[in-house]
Design brief:
- The protein is mostly helical.
- It has one domain: 3-Layer(aba) Sandwich (Rossmann fold), CATH 3.40.50.
- The protein has helices at about 1-10, 25-30, 45-55, 60-80, 100-115; strands at about 35-40, 90-95.
- A two-stranded parallel ribbon has the order 1-2.
- The protein is globular and about 45 Å long.
């Protein structure tokens, strides 16, 4: 039901921002035009950020994050036939590792301008 709601929302509201792990794949599969962005960072940076956010040691953050990633990859492949490691559905991938939030926003705005012109 959630998946169908995301598709319905995207079809009826072209100027909306959707955030979900699967929305880019679902929009791509259903031919719904959208500017699809993936925010990325190296594993080391992600582990450190998660550890701070969850108040965990780096080792605990690594263990939990790797377990969650493996579980998600299996589930998305089993239920949707989606390889979440395949980033080809995205129009823009922003490496947030060495950027401030303001720089990430700037990269997204710049990417949107290129997307609109193409």
């Amino acid at each position: 039901m959630i998946d169908e709601r995301i598709l319905e929302t995207a079809r009826s509201s072209p100027d909306i921002i959707l955030e979900s792990r699967l929305s880019a794949y679902m929009l791509h599969r259903n031919g719904i035009p959208a500017f699809k962005i993936y925010l990325d960072a190296s594993p080391e940076i992600r582990f450190a950020r998660i550890g701070v956010r969850e108040d965990e040691s780096l080792e605990e953050a690594i263990r939990k994050t790797e377990e969650r990633a493996e579980s998600e990859a299996r589930r998305y492949m089993m239920y949707y036939g989606i390889d979440i490691g395949d980033k080809s559905v995205y129009d823009l991938i922003v490496d947030t590792g060495d950027k401030t939030p303001e720089q990430v926003v700037e990269a997204i705005i710049d990417g949107m301008e290129v997307f609109r012109c193409s």
